């Protein structure tokens, strides 16, 4: 059985269909990029993988069971909007991410020292060591996003869910974060789901690129039908299929 199995999943809000007949099987360690038009249900799909919401119909199983509701060591998340703790300093945000598996989220003594050392190593990798003692509100959007990425990766989760994680970053930092994510993945064999509006990024990082789109459309009632996975591209060679270059606005 696959590591992540999505069988005939539908989602609707009120009488608006968002997703329909979503079926996909994912092996452990795969990097899945997700693209699709704004509003087609990509974040909704991630929320269902996180068990933050239940599908209207269908089943999602992860490692043979249903997913837990709270983030834990098994699962790291970077939301579309920044998701760091505002009342903790940059370093404390990373230490907090280490402590998911300890009772009451507190670390003491030796463990805290090790967590602090690991936090400092992570700060170095995400280029935030010079602002370790500042609070998130004093950082730029891109720096907060790097902190959120570092936080999600600190616990080396088995599944990492990334919702447009690099959107707020300048091109140079974005490339650094790509390298960092690929390195980390080599170290851990994480399974990654990453939503992106950048097709090139999707194909560069992903093993597969899933395209969400509406296969049917009622012009009189746009909420009638939902989106589904219309393409499942093998992206292991890193190249963008010629057909998509021609039609690159698929993720616009
Ligand atoms: N809790 C909710 N209640 C009602 N409607 C919702 C809810 N969450 C999302 N929607 C609607 O569902 C649709 C899909 O939203 P979603 O955020 O999943 O899209 P998306 O593909 O992530 O878009 P974007 O690329 O802009 O982030 C949108 O029309 C949105 O308004
Ligand atoms: Mg979204």
UniProtKB/TrEMBL annotation:
Pfam family, one: ABC_tran
GO molecular function: ATP binding; ATP hydrolysis activity
Signal peptide: none
Protein name according to UniProt: NitT/TauT family transport system ATP-binding protein
SUPFAM superfamilies linked to this entry: P-loop containing nucleoside triphosphate hydrolases
UniProt KW keywords: ATP-binding, Nucleotide-binding, Transport
Sequence ranges assigned to domain ABC transporter in this UniProt record: 4-239
